[in-house]
Design a protein that fits this description.
Layout lengths: L22 H4 L1 H4 L19 E3 L3 E4 L2 H12 L4 H15 L9 E8 L4 E7 L22 H5 L10 H12 L4 H14 L1 E2 L2 H9 L1 H4 L3 H7 L11 E2 L2 H13 L2 H4 L2 H11 L10 H5 L4 E3 L2 E5 L2 E5 L6 H12 L11 H21 L10 H5 L1 H9 L35 E6 L5 E7 L9 E2 L2 E2 L12 E2 L2 E2 L17 E5 L2 E6 L7 H13 L5 H6 L3 E3 L4 E4 L8 H6 L4 E4 L6 E5 L3 E5 L6 E4 L1
Parallel strand pairs: 19-20
Antiparallel strand pairs: 1-22, 2-10, 2-23, 3-4, 3-11, 4-7, 5-6, 8-9, 9-16, 10-11, 12-13, 14-15, 16-17, 17-21, 18-19, 21-22
Helix pairs in contact: 3-4, 4-6, 4-7, 7-11, 15-16, 15-18, 15-19
Bound molecules: glycine.
């Protein structure tokens, strides 16, 4: 069997500042600029050619994980089978980004029905959580990492239930067989990757806050190094239990008790997650949210994610503009940047878990509304002021702007199987290493810090405030682009709230600029969310600084830690992996 191997990150890892953050002192714009995950240096690698295949393809952030998925697909497994194998392996070898202790959103194309759907495996706030979860006794928001580290930030994990549900519905291979490669590698030990080693070293102080976590990542007080063999017997045991008893054993019984004891018993910052929260967790199947762009429908995850709405709004506002001058053109960047700013203004005001607050999804993606917002871009300078619009809605809305902090971590998996099914899943434990609490060999998420720490502003409630049972707003943007009723692009990325910009750029690169998936994944980033234009340091994007400055932007050169995994579906499958991470593409 001939498998093709794509770009694999190697070489030095760029060091990045990730200092402790004080939201009050710093303000949202500043603390959203921190990145606890590092990226491999782009300058060290060329773009390479996309991987090509004819039957199936899998792209994800670690070679062990991609290999596990490829083995399943090569043996006739479905994308759902491969998703299980990839995710449980990522939880071992890329533990800082995603795993059983986290949540995920899946966009799924069912080839048999010719239909798209989405699965919401987002974490939920415990029933005992209140809107003041992240406020001190005076009502002031906590400092970000004071909220993150410990049990307070842990939401009920959804990834295990999502995997079980899609496997039950779309899988062909035996559940236990899909967990076995990760179980075996956990027991035998895997070689620590350069990126994981760098992240452990950067985060050593916070990892030391929990004894179990410290013992695993900092044995004898020393951070694990690249190439060290790391054995994870608790994870092997967890997978053995889940293989024998099914995912139900995650949500009730000994494992559930251990999760609750770990969260409630966290030394300095205990949380309120209970066994009832685990027992009542449910994955929600929701309709895909789609927006027209050129001759395509760009489809993704609706609330509680802001991903599909913000990507769709940005593209929708650009419909009337010619972007063919390409990524180095200042006007093109001005248009994309200000469309994104307008989308972020709506996102901050209106988007939250739609099972708790009414969200004007249709109004926000209405072509006439986007044309009206897009008309604001017609000048030749950066917009001086950007605020939320008034999308059509049959509810009266009076929300204050939220201010959730989403720092980059997370992982994205793209899969096409030989039956034509497509999976686009973004998966996370939120911050790098999540809450830093470990149980059963996996890290628990800090997803609850994706809620707004403030619940009100001048008496007006914030849509994305904490409420019991609610799911925090996300930026994860797993995407399937459709053309003439068939999937043509699978896309998604990690990167906190910059996920939206990374995914949007990849789609524009492939549709407007004619790039292949590898070129689109490698393309230097320029991202605007709140006004300042972030330009990817050490790349050609930095050359935009003078031109963007001349039309009124502040610019900021910095590492931009995407992890795009892209597949283009045409006469062949073509895949690209982001050279900023350690991922590869395999196909046959
Ligand atoms: N925690 C990252 C996101 O959900 O957007």
């Amino acid at each position: 069997m001939a498998m093709c191997l794509a770009v694999m990150a190697q070489g030095a890892v760029a060091q990045q500042a990730a200092d402790a953050v004080d939201p009050e002192a710093a303000g949202v714009g500043v603390f959203e600029s921190l990145s606890p995950e590092v990226s491999a240096s782009l300058a060290l690698k060329g773009a390479g050619a996309p991987v090509e295949a004819s039957q199936w393809m899998v792209a994800a952030a670690n070679p062990h994980a991609v290999q596990a998925g490829a083995d399943v697909l090569a043996a006739g497994g479905t994308a759902a089978d491969a998703l299980v194998a990839v995710q449980v392996m990522l939880g071992l070898v890329e533990p800082q980004s995603s795993g059983l202790g986290g949540g995920a959103f899946l966009v799924w194309y069912d080839a048999e029905r010719g239909a798209l759907t989405t699965y919401d495996g987002r974490e939920t706030a415990p029933l005992a959580a209140t809107p003041r979860l992240f406020q001190d006794a005076t009502g002031a928001p906590l400092r970000f990492f004071d909220a993150v580290v410990g049990g307070r930030s842990v939401g009920t994990p959804g990834t295990p239930a999502l995997l079980a549900q899609v496997h039950e519905r779309y899988g062909r291979h035996a559940w236990a067989d899909l967990l076995e490669p990760a179980r075996k590698l956990a027991a035998a030990g895997f070689s620590v990757s350069p990126r994981l080693a760098q992240l452990v070293a950067n985060d050593a102080e916070r990892l030391a806050a929990s004894d179990i976590t410290a013992e695993y990542f900092l044995p004898a007080g020393v951070p694990v190094a690249a190439g060290d063999r790391l054995v994870n017997l608790p994870y092997a045991h967890t997978l053995e239990v889940l293989a024998q008893q099914g995912m139900g054993a995650f949500y009730a019984g000994d494992l559930a008790k251990s999760i609750v004891a770990t969260v409630q018993g966290a030394k300095d910052n205990p949380g309120v997650l209970s066994e009832v929260d685990l027992a009542i967790y449910r994955v929600k199947e929701r309709p895909a949210v789609c927006a027209a762009y050129r001759a395509h429908e760009v489809c993704g995850m609706g609330p509680p994610s802001s991903g599909a709405i913000a990507v769709g709004q940005t593209l929708g506002m650009l419909q009337g503009y010619d972007l063919s001058a390409g990524p180095s053109d200042v006007t093109v960047r001005r248009l994309i940047g200000d469309a994104a700013r307008l989308a972020f203004a709506d996102r901050g005001r209106f988007v939250a878990d739609s099972d708790f607050v009414p969200v004007p999804v249709e109004g926000m993606l209405e072509p006439s509304y986007l044309a009206q917002r897009g008309a604001l871009l017609a000048g030749d300078r950066a917009l001086e002021e950007v605020s939320a619009g008034s999308p059509a809605f049959d509810h009266a809305l009076n929300w204050a702007d939220g201010e959730a902090i989403e720092l980059p971590s997370t992982s994205h998996i793209s899969i096409v199987d030989s039956y034509g099914n497509v999976a686009s899943m973004t998966t996370t434990i939120e911050n790098g290493f999540g809450s830093r609490l470990m149980v059963g060999g996996f890290l628990l998420n800090n997803e609850l810090t994706d809620f707004s720490f403030r619940s009100h502003r001048e008496g007006v409630p914030i849509a994305n405030r904490v409420e019991p049972g609610k799911r925090p707003r996300s930026s994860m943007s797993p995407t399937i682009v459709m053309k003439d009723g068939a999937p043509v692009i699978v896309a998604g990325s990690p990167g906190g709230s910059r996920i939206i910009g990374y995914t949007t750029q990849a789609i524009i690169a492939m549709i407007d600029w004619g790039m292949d998936p590898q070129q689109a994944a490698t393309l230097p980033h320029a991202v605007n969310r709140f006004g300042t234009y972030d330009l990817e340091a050490g790349t050609s994007a930095e050359a935009l600084a003078d031109g963007l400055g001349a039309v009124g932007y502040e610019t900021n050169a910095r590492a931009l830690t995407s992890g795009l995994h892209l597949i283009a579906i045409g006469d062949r499958l073509r895949g690209g992996a982001d050279p900023r991470r350690e991922g590869i593409v395999l196909g046959e």
